[in-house]
Design a protein that fits this description.
heterodimer, A: 254 residues, mainly alpha, MetI-like fold, B: 266 residues, alpha/beta, Rossmann fold, 2 domains, six-stranded mixed β-sheet, four-stranded antiparallel β-sheet, 8 helices, 33% helix, disordered C terminus
């Protein structure tokens, strides 16, 4: 029963949302070139089925690769900031400043520096936009480790690496996964920014663009839905990993 | 009898923005092998600093800390520590928490042997049946029991405790005193217990060291001449009550020296 509820409730919520959307379009009498209704979308999906699969794959792998780089780099950066006060003081203003720059403005810059390297550019942008939350959360997680946690092993002469591996790292995992959930969606934004702002005919962003050029509004909306679905999939992928590696942090349902 | 712990003329100060803050001033404490030393003193008098010095986590500015004939300059594997916060690792079960020091001190010990040792201790403190639970599923007193098991699982020479029962309610605390007494009878460690509970110091200690206010010196040492198999009732008998009176008076004196006036410290 509980399992059923866990699946049924979100599905029902989605159904209600689609119904409302359909209703708003219908009551206003909007034509498809103003606002597509959910009922217009299946046709678009079927018509461009091959593109959706091909382009969706392009978007997916570049997002995941960018995210993976963000995890590695963000964790390393977080470790440096978590263990060294000097590094923290030095890096925080830089990082915050970098994060405040709207990433859309970076797309042409990157496109100029790495002309023609579309795959690389897209992965780079997905990475750039998503490493910040990971670095900050790992840094905070490590720097706020209570000294007693360190002392129970340090008093036995354990090395810094051992303390990190046995205590600091697992203790930071819940914060890490919290940040990763934010980063997943950010990485998608990064990928699509490049696909749309610096068009090169790859990815769902490019499909969106071609819909726009051809005034194919149902296609544009179908792309948005496809992006949402990919985002949900990746998000729940992270949730599954969190269950495996940081399931201990989850409290029993109240 | 050789002293297992010898603290000789230890002086220590922290560097702060407002200059040096002296916390320990020419402190002397000696604990013979197998004895239980309770350290009491006004709050903020440097008791926790003392635990970090004995465990080798910190070096004093002046003076020496000796452990079984060796001068302490860095952490060693023969020390066990317990704090007011049980600091159990939430991602490990209780038994996995207890064996943690063995993973550092005796990495080659077979897992079954480590688990046997941990189970033996858990049984002794009344946590049999809870070994596979997570720390969050246990009460505060039970967590502290597990923390004590972890502190002695590797058979340390010295058990250092920094107000381990401070956050517990009175009855739970008295239960844990008795657990401590039983562990002591079964395990061969020398103990230093930092506490602010005079009854606790008399119930558990062979000697009670009263520290003066900051910077702390050894102000008074009380030898607790009571049998080792004490019960809580002993605290209400004439001898113990007399000791408590003496300690109370010493604490009053120690507090009188505190409060920013440097009078008498130099």
């Amino acid at each position: 029963m509980e399992r059923f509820q866990k699946i049924a409730v979100p599905l029902l919520a989605i159904a209600v949302f689609l119904a409302l959307w359909e209703f708003v379009v219908w009551i206003n009498g909007w034509p498809p070139y103003k606002m597509a209704a959910p009922s217009d979308l299946p046709a678009a999906f079927i018509r461009f089925q091959d593109q959706f699969i091909g382009m969706g794959w392009q978007t997916l792998w570049r997002t995941v690769l960018g995210l993976a780089l963000a995890v590695v780099f963000g964790t390393l950066l977080g470790m440096v900031m978590g263990f060294s006060r000097v590094a923290r003081d030095a890096l925080y203003p830089l990082l915050v400043g970098f994060n405040a720059v709207p990433k859309a403005t970076l797309v042409p810059v990157i496109a100029l520096i790495f002309i023609g390297q579309h795959d690389f550019n897209t992965v780079l942008m997905a990475f750039l936009i998503s490493f910040f939350p990971i670095a900050v959360s790992v840094g905070i997680g490590l720097s706020t480790l209570e000294p007693e946690y360190r002392d129970i092993l340090a008093a036995l002469g354990a090395s810094k690496l051992t303390i990190f591996r046995k205590i600091a790292l697992p203790k930071t995992l819940p914060e890490f996964f919290g940040a990763l959930k934010v980063s997943v969606t950010l990485a998608f934004i990064g990928t699509n920014l490049v696909e749309i702002v610096s068009p090169h005919g790859k990815g769902l962003g490019a499909l969106f663009l071609s819909g726009q050029i051809n005034s194919d509004y149902p296609l544009m909306f179908a792309v948005l839905i496809a992006l949402a679905v990919l985002g949900i999939l990746l998000y729940y992928g992270v949730v599954a990993l969190e269950r495996i590696f940081a399931g201990w942090a989850e409290r029993e349902a109240q | 009898m050789q002293n297992l712990i010898d603290i000789k003329g230890v002086t220590h100060a922290y560097r702060t923005r407002h200059g040096a803050l002296p916390v320990l001033d020419n402190l002397d404490i000696s604990v013979p092998q197998g004895e239980f030393c309770a350290v009491v003193g006004p709050s903020g008098c440097g008791k926790s600093t003392l635990t970090r010095l004995i465990s080798g986590l910190m070096k004093p500015n002046a003076g020496e800390v000796w452990l079984s004939g060796e001068k302490i300059t860095s952490p060693r594997k023969t020390v066990g520590m317990a704090f007011q916060n049980p600091v159990l690792l939430e991602w490990r079960t209780i038994i996995e928490n207890v064996v943690l020091p063995l993973e550092i001190v005796a990495p080659s010990m077979p897992k079954a042997q480590a688990n046997d040792r941990a189970m033996h201790l858990l049984e002794m403190v009344g946590l049999k049946g809870f070994e596979s639970k997570r720390p969050s599923e246990l009460s505060g007193g039970m967590r502290q029991r597990a923390s004590l098991c972890r502190a002695i699982v590797h058979k340390p020479e010295v058990l250092i405790m920094d107000e381990p029962f401070g956050a517990l309610d009175n009855f739970t605390r008295e239960d844990l005193w008795q657990t401590m007494r039983d562990l002591r009878a079964a395990e061969p460690f020398t103990a230093v217990l930092i506490t602010h509970d005079l009854r606790e110091s008399v119930f558990l200690g062979d000697q009670v060291v009263v520290l003066s206010g900051r910077p702390a010196r050894t102000q008074y040492v009380l030898n607790v001449d009571l049998p080792h198999d004490r019960t809580i009732d002993i605290l209400y008998e004439k001898e113990a009550v007399g000791m408590l009176h003496v300690l109370r008076e010493q604490i009053r004196i120690a507090q009188g020296r505190d409060g920013g006036t440097d009078g008498g410290a130099h």
